[in-house]
Amino acid sequence: MERITLTIDGQSVTVPAGTTIRAAALAAGIHTPTLCGHPSVRVGANCRVCVVELEGARTLVESCTRPAAPGMVIRTTSERVVRARRTVLDLLLSETDAGAAPTLQAFARYYGAAPDRFPSATPRGHEPLADNPFFLRDYAKCIACRRCVAACGRDIQQTFAIALTGRGHEISVGAGAVGDDLANSPCVFCGNCVGVCPTGALMPLSQVDVPVPQYDWSPRAGLVPTTGTTVTTTTCSFCGVGCTLELHTHAGQIVAATSPVTAPVNRGQLCVKGRFGFDYVHSADRLTRPLIRRGGQPGARRGTPEYGRLEPASWEEALDLVAARLGQVKAEHGPDAICGFSSAKCTNEENYLFGKLMRAAVGTNNVDHCSRLCHAASVTAVNLALGSLAMSNSIGEIRAETDCLLVTGSNTTENHPIIALEMKAAVARGAKLILVDPREIELAQYATLHLQQKSGTDAAVFNAMAHVIIGERLWNQAFVDERTEGFTDLAAAVADCTPAWAETISGVPADLIRQAARLYATSRSSGIYWGMGISQHASGTDASLTLTNLALLCGQIGRPGTGLNPLRGQNNVQGAGDMGCLPPLLPGYRTVADEAERARIGALWGVELPKSKGLTATEAVAAMGDGRVRALYVMGENPLLTDPNLNHARHCFEQLEFLAVQDIFLSETAELADVVLPAAAFAEKEGTFTNTERRVQRVRAAVPAPGEARQDWAILANLATRLGYPMSYRDPAAILAEVGACVPEYSGITWERLEQGPGLQWPCPAPDHPGTRFLFADSFPRGRGKLHPVRFTAPPEEPDQEYPFLLTTGRVLFHWHGGVISRRSPGLDAIAPEALVEIHPEDSARLRITDAEPVRVTSRRGEVTARAQVTTRTQPGAIFMTFHYAEAAANLLTIDALDPLAKIPEFKVCAVRVEPVS
Amino acid sequence: MAIQRRRRYHKPSAPVPPAFVAAVDEALSALAPVRRDHALPLLQRIQARLGYLPGEALACAARRSRIPQADLHALASFYDMLSTEPDGTTVVHLCDDIVCRCAPGARALAARLEREGWKVKTAPCLGLCDRAPAALVTSGGEAGGSAAYGGYQTWQVVTDAATTPGVGWHRRYAPVLLGRCGRYNPDDLAGYAAAGGLGALERARRMAPEALLEQVKASGLVGRGGAAFSTGIKWEGVAKAPTPLGPGPDGSLKYVVVNADESEPGTFTNRVLLEQDPLAVLESALIAAHAVGAGQIYIYIRGEYPLAIDSMTAAVATFAAAGLLGSVRAEVRCGSGAYICGEETALFASIEGERGEPRVKPPFPTTHGLFQRPTLINNVETLANLLPILNQGAAAWAAAPPKLFSISGLPVARPGVYEAPLGLPLQNLLDLAGVPAAEVQAVLVGGSSGMFLGPDQLQTPLSFKGLTEAGATLGSGAVMVFGHETDLWDVAARIARFFAEESCGKCVPCRIGTARQAELVPELATATGVGLHQDLALTMADASICGLGQTATNAIRSLLRLKGGR
């Protein structure tokens, strides 16, 4: 890179071309104050505090945006510069409440600026606005630097909910909504505006009463904190993206969450859950003592008052009871009568121990986790096609390197908000977006092509795309020849899958399918990103295979910006799988059937490992119903809200002889348990999460766990010991070291490396290995990638005369999965307090349903009541509901038909009836 | 701090009145396909139908255009002539700026308007100083007449002045810029040709762009908008600029923008050219487009100039009908009341559908102009000089470069626009307009951002150099004359208020500095006040982003100098 030399305050400074004057000065050890400059947003150097003197220039120049040029002579301490900086600060102080603006105060102290030098005769009459449950807008503190506007709009969110209002001295920031009410604007409350606000004009409600940290500033030292809150850097617990969080604590409470711009995945940006949803940690509902069910009557049915009440107990008593009851079931019915559900919300170390507990201490392969309910079909398909079980490429490639994005079955904006930002940034760069989704989700606004298929017809659409790609000879012959097998079978299978045929099934115009096929196949780098919309079907594996076919056919894999990228839902669902919490898979996806691997890991664990295939979580529910499974141990999951056909699932749970739940809240599942063990939340524990792009990152404790709640790993180790399999670990670091010994892909991922760096992406086989950004550059784990002929199968239940609507379930931005956590965040619950039934205006008009009116939704399996939301987001004939709300649990309606391979239920299509309640 | 949290935050949205929907649909279909840079015309058209911009109409327009609602509101609250409150269908914008406030009929006109029950808003300079006191009437809504340009359906100029507006020059001077004024109608191409038009364009189109650039450079023409930058160098910069971004949203790689947002108080030279010689303005712009390789011309006219908008719109139609545009597209865009939009980068922002806020320079418009593409932006008067340069030759033109001056003020017998050679002593110009030297208390040259000259400085040559040496600036060529009856501190207060109201608010020194300056004017009688003003002035001149803030203290500083304090 070209380097240039300039003179700053008499010093000669050499910097790369393109460096700003301010950065060049910093390279010379000279700090320059700025209030509006920020690495994430471009606001046009409006605060003017950063001005410097440039020899030969008529006026002073802004140093934070002006590139340094060769030969420039810059002065930062001349009388002109000092006067201008001081006067600008005087002016700001003359009418701004700087009480929450420590940097402004620090600059003012250094330059001797004062609020009374230019006393304002016209105070700006702004009243603080508390128009939303997350943050306060106090424009008396605003310096109109417009960082917030840039963050909301062009530079980060592309939401454009706020803009400047007024002109000149009257300038402020507003939503333009009637009443300037953010809640009635497009605002999604990501708080990225709050994150960049330099003066506390935008402030989390949780922080309003907390003392503002103070700084000193000088050109030599820059900003130096003098007082402050304690900040703990950790990883967000709200989804699989893996955003870096900084938890600010005061008096033992988390008062704010921020993110540094250096964050490897999210660049300092957060979503509403990450930034404001942490308060569930301090919920009064937290479990603080072990609970044991007492006073039950013999023969009473689980879940009835006669079954007894959960009452506080000592840890000793509770753990003894769990060990005794599990031991009893094992003795009477064998180890396979016991089943364990691990948690994708817990750390790698905890999941590793959970799998070890079940396989080594109990002696069963009946261990599974919620992946069964989300991406089981995706990982099954990717495993069949490639021999791998993870997202192939990295999030960062989307923004920088992907030319064509095929997004399907993923409402990315709401479920992986930060990845959606990357996608929008890619589109802004010129990338093309093919959206295949039944609903008109937010990404549709950015889509080059939107294929709005009927739910459950994905395989038809993608088979037709393969048909076009083969028919028009757009496939990558070299790649297919060298790296795949099964082309002939695939070509034969899709020969009659014409776009016209797919149109009759899916409703997507044939020409759109052709255009999508051409765009995907011919772009330099095309990546596929998918979510539950593909996998949560009784034919989810097949649908996922049609995607792996496309990538293999076109060679759109094994390079940056390409790949097969299932967007994982929970914060550590990738890690839970990596750690072996899947019935047939040991840590590192070694199969139970593999004698050598079973022996190797058995030797490491000092036991002979069971050979049985093990039950998946969905199979286990049925097995509880018929007595094959007698005892269940659940860590941090809530199947009694998230399982399909809940009435039936509850019936099965009621047949259990023993149910133990380890959780942070008394979930719907815990309410049925015999023993409940209080655990620590993410902000109270040490460990690691693995995000959707295989990045292993640190989780750190910011606050102590409440009451007697314990770390999950400690509970598991104690229980294993009581079951006769002693486990003693000093700390999670010791567990991670054992993971490294057990899982070659994790061997190079050490606690020490994670402490220092931005996480490591597996495979990372050695301590000096940098981690792997994208997979399959040279080969696939199974050798050649396999193209799978897939025949389209219709969903198991389709609308008919009696149940004329198609119901699809999903999630909203403001809640997370079973809602156990997010609904205990007061802000999240206030902004999205109830389940809504999305219905198209044509249907609502026919049924005489008005917006916000309660409607009853009935399927063959149950009924729920919720308010209607009349919207064109959904297609005519289809309704959409979220599954977060226990009081209107959509899963009372869904069907428990399972995918034959992945055993994932059909959450996305079932037939229902809709009628007004009145 | 006790914060009340609501149980529920979303409120069901009320249905939008059908009249609003109709107005929005009509505006959208007139502009279709709607682009982001249509935001301002969209609002102008909706307001023309409804008389104002109701929040529900903005919400509806946002949904249908996909231009964010907050951004539409940001525009509506930025431009003075847009209103989100129902002001009634007809509004009289009564000028209370420097010249009009001093005019003898000012109070009588205000009283009459009040008596007659008009909705009156005070306005900054309307560019009608030669007819002071002036007012502009805007009408909209159902009561308005047929649709017209720029969104303002009907207009009329209200004036009580007895003086006739006009153009003038010394009887021994042969005008090269004003000669065609009023001699043809905008739809009369033959009349224009007969008055000497079209020859330059034909000549230019026969020339290679490089040769054309050489002619302009050889003439030594500098910009007439106030900055006096070499026009030839600017043109060359645009012509040579690479186009890495490809075509802009309207398909053009490079642009010519005619800066007709003439808003400097006391200045109306451009208005006269636009109204009375519009085909020459368009012809010049086409020559420029040929020279720099631009595919699109935008003529941005301030919203307060309805006659000019009318005549330029007609001029574009006339040229288009005659096939004279060639492959170049030309479009008139209207301002909506914001002085700052005369600043070139703010003007670009306004065309792009953003708030008219300046950008830091560099990068300069020659490489990063409208839509971040290479853009030639010239003032109307600058462009008008192209025709004589090409018709007479650069050398002949350079022998006596012409300059337009707008002269107004109470002691001026014949206010109007005068053409004279650059360098004419101020006294001679005053003589032309009929100003008795004895009646002169002071002359403000260059508009509100210019400086006061005293009666002892009337021999100052009206050239860029001459005025700089006198500690002043030629600026836009505005010459405002004050008699002894005028309280110059009142004028100073009005100027300070003007800048406080017209600052866009983007940068701190200007946004807050102009407000504090307005408050400081009464304090200028004290040494403390003068000292504070000096610090303020130095900082604003040094640290503001654009010329507005940099020059906002000029007049008051010069007045302090002239009067030796208050």
What multimeric state do the chains show?
Answer: heterodimer
Which strand order do you get reading across the main beta sheet of chain B? 5-11-10-14-12-13
In percent, how helical is the residue content of chain A?
A: 25-40%
- Average pLDDT taken over every residue of chain B: 90
Silhouette of chain B: globular
Counted beta strands of chain A: 41
Shape of chain A: globular
Radius of gyration of chain A (CA) equals 29 Å
Contiguous runs where pLDDT drops below 50 for at least 5 residues of chain B: 141-164
Alpha plus pi helix count of chain B: 24
Q: Name the strands of the widest sheet of chain A in spatial order.
A: 16-15-29-28-27-17-18
Low-confidence stretches of chain A: none
- Overall pLDDT confidence of chain A: 94
Rounded to the nearest angstrom, the distance between the terminal CA atoms of chain B is 47 Å
Radius of gyration of chain B: 23 Å
Biggest pleated sheet of chain B: 6 strands, mixed
Termini separation of chain A = 72 Å
Computed structural class of chain A = alpha/beta
How many helices of chain A? The count is 29
Description:
The complex is a heterodimer of chains A (918) and B (566). With 918 residues, chain A is an alpha/beta fold. The longest helix of chain A is centred in the middle third of the chain and has 19 residues, at 315-333. Chain A is globular and about 90 Å long. The relative contact order of chain A is 0.11. Chain B has 566 residues and is α/β, with parallel strands linked by helices. Helices cover 41% and strands 13% of the residues of chain B. In chain B, the strands form three sheets. A six-stranded mixed beta sheet of chain B has the order 5-11-10-14-12-13. A four-stranded mixed beta sheet of chain B has the order 2-1-3-4, with helices on one face. In chain B, helix 8 runs parallel beside helix 12 (278-292) and helix 21 (508-520) packs antiparallel against helix 22 (527-543). The longest helix of chain B has 17 residues, at 527-543. The model of chain B is unreliable at 141-164 (pLDDT under 50). Classes of the chains: A alpha/beta (918), B alpha/beta (566). At the A-B interface, helix 2, strand 7 and helix 28 of A face helix 3, helix 4, helix 20, helix 21 and helix 22 of B.
